[in-house]
Amino acid sequence: MLKNYLKIIFIIFVVVAYNFSFAQEVHNDYQGTYVGKVTKVVSQEEREIGWNDTKGLYQVLEIKLLSGPQKDQTITFESDFPEISKGDKVFLNYLINVGGVERYAITNINRTNQIYFFIALFVAVIILFGGKQGFRSLLALVGSFLAIFYILIPAILAGWHPLLICVFVSSCILFAAIFFTHGFNRESLVAYSGTMLAVFITSILAIIAVKVTKLSGFSEDASVYLNFNTGGNLDFSGLLLGAIIIGVLGVLDDIAVTQSAVVTELFDSNKNITRLEVYKRAMRVGKEHVGALVNTLVLAYTGTALPLLLLFKIYNYDFNTVINMEIFATEIIRTIVGSIGLVLTVPIVTLLAVIYLKDYKPKHGHSHGHSHGHSH
């Protein structure tokens, strides 16, 4: 009898000790994220990490901390982060488990300088080739980001309906993009008015499409995490609708400004040309432009989903199975609704331009890049 009790006590001791050690291992108190520089790759080797003989690279790294409470200290630890080289700067999470053991884990490579370099290159190219108009377009772009980060995102988190706030912010972004880039003139007014009509129609179509396809808005992991962190208070189908509108803004702006410019140039080149003839010619240009932009939209979305497409190909999923998965169904609806909005923008803006730009005299000095033969 005593022996049985001793066995039971021993088992309980082992279980408690195991759970305590496991808790120490999995419970880590996050202290912060800091920057370090790799001073030495001590060793590296490939190990099997999966059931199908997949191998991963494990490296023992020597890293000098550049920030945080242990700044200027050098630490050495093993990492399974994708290959790191000597001289790389990395972001590290600093963790302390319940036993007081400190641990660092690499979360990302520090790409700050490289990113800023390409931003500077982008700005330089835009200003070099676009001049004053290019500079104005950059200001409009900055305004767009400010509107998204300081109006759109806070409003959605505060409980506003995502679609309504996205349409409002879209109108602000379009106003800045069109008027500040191409000037405050009748051409810009026509482009803006036509684009807003297209946004309104696209919004209605998006509501119908998301409703009938029963898209939840949870096609990405980020949506799931966001739902947990907001207590389930956000309308994710509404968020998807807003994302569709924001995503199509750039191409709607492009096609609208182009059509206004084409109509202006046709009227300017021949004083005796009729409105009907201008409409027909401008529509021919618009159809060519739409064809190229729709192709751009489809290829852009396909490019972002390429790894998933390859994965599904490996698993031999049939076509109907793939397109019914929410992650693909979402992109299909997004592309189709955006493309329809794009197509509808052409006749709407062209019609408005033909009506209101008949006797318009463009000020070529600050006209946009789609027009030709600009001179003082």
Description:
This protein has 376 residues and is of the alpha+beta class. The chain folds into 2 domains: 27-110, OB fold (Dihydrolipoamide Acetyltransferase, E2P); 130-366, no CATH class. The chain has 10 helices and 5 strands, in the order H-E-E-E-E-E-H-H-H-H-H-H-H-H-H. It has a 5-stranded antiparallel beta sheet, covered by helices on one side. A hairpin with a 6-residue loop joins strand 1 (28-48) and strand 2. Helix 3 (162-182) packs antiparallel against helix 4 (186-213) and helix 4 (186-213) runs antiparallel to helix 10. The chain starts with a helix and ends in a 20-residue tail after the last helix.
Provide a quick synopsis of the model.
It contains ten helices and five strands.
Radius of gyration: 29 Å
Globally, the shape reads: elongated
Encode the helix/strand succession as letters: HEEEEEHHHHHHHHH
Low-confidence stretches: 1-27, 365-376
Report the major sheet: 5 strands, antiparallel
